[in-house]
Design a protein that fits this description.
Helix 1 runs parallel beside helix 2 and helix 1 packs parallel to helix 9. The chain has about 290 residues and is of the alpha/beta class. The strands form 4 sheets. Strands 6-3-2-13-12-11-10-7 form an 8-stranded parallel β-sheet, sandwiched between helices. A hairpin with a 4-residue loop joins strand 8 and strand 9. The longest helix is centred in the first third of the chain and has 14 residues. The protein has a single domain, classed as Alpha-Beta Barrel (TIM Barrel). Helices cover about 35% and strands about 20% of the residues. The protein is built from 10 helices and 14 strands. The two termini are about 25 Å apart.
């Protein structure tokens, strides 16, 4: 028997149009891309807001609000924003609080990146590391603030797992009662362009799944810095759900696909395996949001 498989699309992130002209900057562009990508089969949409002219990552609440209002005027995928690297925990999460004051702009999910990591990319041709001095810091207390605030706002958090230690932190917070099942876990595997994360292989996913035996959860897998489409059959066969999108991989040398095209390919693979692509309604029921 088939099952509903959820698709999340991370539609823009920090990726630049020089890599792929389909990457959205302005709020109207982001909303239009979210709508088209949801229609292609993605029930969850993750997005960053950008300076409309330069594409620089910003955290302007009016930009976020515009994306929510424009998208929800047409369809209702589960929308959740990012949060910045720098600042106090309260500053980094302030837009979740501001957006949640209005039902029209309230995020569908909270979130937390559950640990610290060297977020760097590696150019294998030039043999150079980009971001060699940057450490993405999230202490246990920072994570606690994100999770507590998500709970206060009535948002079930999506938990980003960049490394195995992040998952162990999630299990600590679950044991403490700060998290409740079903957990929403995102396993971020590391493609060739990345220098962190487990590689995109069956054994990597099996290692993560061994760690969560007996835990009720919905887990997704993505490949950061690499094409996740070849992993879709493995992810689905193990009971997982799929994350794709131009934030994670820009297809700069692979046809410059759009987000709807990427999702359509993932959806076709899911259906070819005898499963169904989860609707937005089914996704809300599965995630209990």
């Amino acid at each position: 028997m088939g099952r509903p498989v959820m698709i999340e699309a991370a539609i823009n992130g920090n990726a630049m149009r020089e890599l792929n002209p389909n990457i959205a900057y302005a709020p109207a562009q982001i909303a239009n891309d979210a709508i088209a990508t949801a229609r292609a089969g993605a029930a969850l949409i993750h997005f960053h807001v950008r300076d409309p002219e330069t594409g620089r990552w910003v955290q302007d609440v009016p930009y976020y609000s515009e994306v929510y209002r424009r998208t929800r005027a047409v369809c209702d995928p589960l929308l959740w924003p990012t949060f910045p690297f720098n600042g106090t925990p309260a500053e980094r999460f302030s837009h979740f609080v501001a957006l949640s004051k209005d039902p029209a702009t309230k995020p569908d999910l909270g979130g937390a990146d559950l640990g610290s990591v060297n977020l760097a990319t590696y150019d294998r041709v030039a043999k150079k590391i980009r971001g060699a001095n940057f450490v993405y810091l999230n202490s246990f207390e920072t994570c606690r603030y994100f999770l507590e605030t998500s709970r206060e706002l009535g948002l079930r958090p999506t938990l980003q797992i960049f490394e195995p230690g992040f998952l162990r932190a999630a299990l600590v917070f679950l044991d403490q009662g700060l998290l409740t099942e079903p957990l929403i876990l995102k396993f971020y595997l590391g493609g060739d362009e990345q220098s962190f994360g487990l590689p995109p292989t069956l054994k990597s996913l099996e290692a993560y799944l061994e760690m969560i035996k007996g835990v009720r959860c919905n887990w997704f897998a993505a490949t950061l810095g690499g094409d996740n489409l070849p992993m879709v059959p493995t992810i689905v066969s193990l009971g997982g759900h799929v994350r794709v999108g131009l934030e994670d991989y820009q297809y700069a040398n692979d046809g410059q696909l759009s987000n709807p095209q990427i999702v359509e390919r993932a959806a076709a693979m899911i259906r070819a395996m005898g499963h169904e692509v989860a609707t937005i309604k089914q996704t809300r029921e599965l995630l209990e949001v």
